[in-house]
Amino acid sequence: MKKDIGVKKKHHVVPVILGILFLLVIIVVIWLFMPINMPAKDASRITAIRVFDGTYGKSITITDPNEIKEIVDTVNSFKLRREMISIGFMGYRFIVEFEPKTGKWDRFIMNSGNTIRQDPFFYHYEGSPHLYNYFDKKFDEMNQ
């Protein structure tokens, strides 16, 4: 009889382990594909935005409050979705850095018109590549 009880316990353990694994997979899938927002920025607290172009190897500093507000509003509107892990990838198009009046600088990398890298992930953002095109145009004008 003792042998039968042990066999029944083993049969109950397998479904529990499979249920826990299934739950973990569901949680990971939801976490990876759930849309998220960029950390909100307050344009009134930012004194400058520095953009470095990885193609030309040059940078620009934007200090006009109206331009800063427009850029910050655009970034705040991004709806992001994790695409893949970015660890080990090199190269970029634009590094965008926000210089606050006080505190820590915030930055992210724009690889294309709809891809942002903020380690450890690449993010896809929906909508117009307006900001990417804006920076692209600024650097094209500067290099002509």
Structural description of this entry:
With 144 residues, the protein is an alpha+beta fold. The protein has two domains: 1-34; 36-142, Dna Ligase, domain 1. Helix content is 40%, strand content 31%. The protein has three helices and eight strands. It has helices at residues 2-33, 65-77, 130-142, and strands spanning 36-37, 46-53, 58-62, 79-85, 94-100, 106-112, 115-118, 121-125. It has an eight-stranded antiparallel sheet, covered by helices on one side. The longest helix is centred in the N-terminal third of the chain and has 32 residues, at 2-33. It is elongated, with a radius of gyration of 23 Å.
Topology readout:
Layout: H1 2-33, E1 36-37, E2 46-53, E3 58-62, H2 65-77, E4 79-85, E5 94-100, E6 106-112, E7 115-118, E8 121-125, H3 130-142
Antiparallel strand pairs: 1-4, 2-3, 2-5, 4-8, 5-6, 6-7, 7-8
Indicate the proportion of strand residues: 25-35%
Q: Which CATH first-tier class of the largest domain would you pick?
A: Alpha Beta
Overall tally of domains? 2
Tell me the number of helical segments per DSSP (H or I, 4 or more residues long). Answer: 3
What CATH calls the topology of the largest domain is Dna Ligase, domain 1
Mean pLDDT: 83
Percentage of residues in helical conformation: 40-55%
> What is the SS-derived class?
alpha+beta
Give a count of the beta strands, DSSP E runs of length 2 or more.
Answer: 8
Distance between the termini: 88 Å
Largest sheet: 8 strands, antiparallel
Counting copies of identical and different chains, the oligomeric state is: single chain
Q: What is the overall silhouette?
A: elongated
Order of SSEs, N→C?
A: HEEEHEEEEEH
Low-confidence stretches: none
Order of strands in the sheet with most strands: 1-4-8-7-6-5-2-3
